[in-house]
Amino acid sequence: MNTEVKIAGVTFKNPVMTASGTFGSGMEYSDFVDLNRLGAVVTKGVANVPWEGNPTPRVAEVYGGMLNAIGLQNPGIDVFMERDLAFLQKYDTNVIVNVCGKTVEDYLEVVERLSDTAVSMLEINVSCPNVKEGAIVFGQKADSLYDITSQIKRKAKQPVIMKLSPNVTDITEMARAAEAAGADALSMINTITGMKIDIHRKKFVLANKTGGMSGPAVKPVAVRMVYQTAQAVKIPIIGMGGIGSAEDAIEFLLAGASAVAVGAMNFVNPYTTVEVVEGIEAYMKQYGIENVTELIGAVT
Amino acid sequence: MAQKRKVTATVISQKQIAEQIYDLWLETKLAKDVRPGQFVGVYPHGESMLLPRPISICETDKEKNRLRLVYRVAGKGTAEFSACKAGDRLDILGVLGNGFPVDRAKGKRVFLMGGGIGIPPMLELAKAMDGKKQILLGYRNKELFLEEDLAEYGDVYVATEDGSVGTKGNVMDIINAYSLQADVIMACGPMPMLRAIKKYAAQNGIEAYISLEERMACGVGACLGCVCRTTKTDAHSHVNNARICTEGPVFEAGEVDI
What we know:
The structure holds two protein chains of two kinds. Chain A is an alpha/beta fold. Chain A has helices spanning 76-88, 104-113, 136-139, 142-155, 171-180, 219-232, 246-255, 265-268, 272-286, and strands spanning 5-7, 10-12, 16-18, 40-42, 59-62, 65-68, 94-99, 121-125, 160-163, 185-188, 192-195, 197-198, 203-204, 210-214, 237-240, 259-262. The model of chain B has no long low-confidence stretch (mean pLDDT 97). The interface between A and B is large, with 40 and 34 residues.
């Protein structure tokens, strides 16, 4: 039985990763999960300099999911390389660094700083709905997305994944723009913009008013978008959105994802990632599937 | 520090001890790892409610692997917990947070100050602490709870907002009413109380440790949801936002901008 997948020339021991922002840089979950078991750890977004993020409250539970408006708090690339990357490199797993910025130059600085490291891939965050500058500004218009993708591709030494926002009219248009600009892969979906109101206080629950929704309630939307995008582009897709079990993960693979990421469900069950790995293996055994790649896009 | 785990605990007993306040004993091996001021995340059962509810640990019986949680029903998740009966199971995540620096109180005059649902962690703290314990408790009204348990470990003073029991007002009014003095303060309670304590401690040159709360998601330091403003650069993100679940919930009062 072979659970290996290849994305843009990078080999993953299995198709299970962590979704950026839900797993820190792996350290916080290493009490629960043997990181060596994962296909990759995708880090929390890192910028060229430290970011403070948004005021609190930053998180709220909603029916079958949650909203967050963290605002990409991060220690900046210096501390990240010294501490987080050094930590992750002790493990036998791929490291994918999620890169964020307010300007194209910010992104390029981080991309360049990572060029001589053992990082396997870069995931470019052009889809965070919770910051006013950068991020999603680049991810909601096809021409801006094309522009930033091509600039990053010119500088990047590692394969580039563009992380797409679902908060657009047609996600396949964004996917095509990223592909045309040379993106090596796509991650999707980032969170869906939502809102929660405290009716007793007549106030927004989140200080940021809006937040990104994730969790099981968004899964059908994510599966649909992965399927549509897989029909529209040739580059591989890393699927995510509410994955909490192997069954969920397999849906994404069948819809056309080459790999999957576990996000908010890490908070619900910190062992989710490894349970998904084991569950995929059990499913392959049950149906006599030799290579996990047979599942990719196999829905009919 | 002990490894964090998600485990299934068994309900030993539960009773309501005041309006909306419940007293829950759980059996779990996590009890052995607890330090005063730490908390656990308790998971609701329903799939519509996902996130662990952070609840402070009131008391432990380490020999019997038991953990006592005294909590207020604040929403659907805690309402579900309040219906649990002996023998029921609850998934919990723990042990979380840093806890109070108990040793700072050794041989000193201490104020243990609890306001409302900030009172429960004072019990495990009072049990573990070696010092002159003056326990100042603030309640809304005559629906007191835990004051008898706490009286076994120190001198208890009560204030109520409506004046129905003890000093009328809050825990700060107790200090004035009895001209109490301390070298160290350890406190948990609503933000206005913690702000008043921070100010009082700074004015009187007293060492103070306060336990904060915030809406949390992961509880283990990954999501950066539950931060508080800090006066110095924080150790994790190198900005001025420390994680309440991990660097906290207990902070030296001067460290945080509240």
